[in-house]
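During data preparation, a discrete fold description was generated, and the record follows.
___
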Amino acid sequence: MTSSSTEKLALTVGELKAIGLFGALNDDVLAHLASTLTVELPEAGQVLFREGDPATAMYVVMSGEMEVLKRSRSGHEARVAVLGPSDWFGEMSIVDIQPRSATVRALAPGRLVRVTPSDLDSLYRHDLRSYAIVVLNLARELSRRLRVADGIVADLVANVLESYVRRPGGGGS
């Protein structure tokens, strides 16, 4: 392994401090996380996991771009999000331990921090308060995403209803 590869795999307190997931954690806890979390370096086009796969970890994007793909009932894959530095994905696997709900693929070479349930258990044992903060940060992001999804569903329903309610022949506005 080259020294630049080793540097890419090393995490710093400063890097973790800039990530919302780890917001409000003190430097001691961030140093603990930096020494225990695993860094992965996906190549462009690499699939990190597929919809339906067993869930084993969540990821924090340190660099690169990841696309989130969701399969429709008819089998068509649609891009539902593009994630970049400071974003995270796969957190549902930490919360509900169900199969993956989407596919994630690297659009560009990336640098990701892998967070497993075991890593969170280690944090729990190291510092209960910090564990609670991370779980609350996860919950806040899940809530934000649910609000966005609710807005999208409401707009979709309103548009579909509007198209069925319009009178034929241009009787609408």
About this structure: The chain has one domain: 3-165.
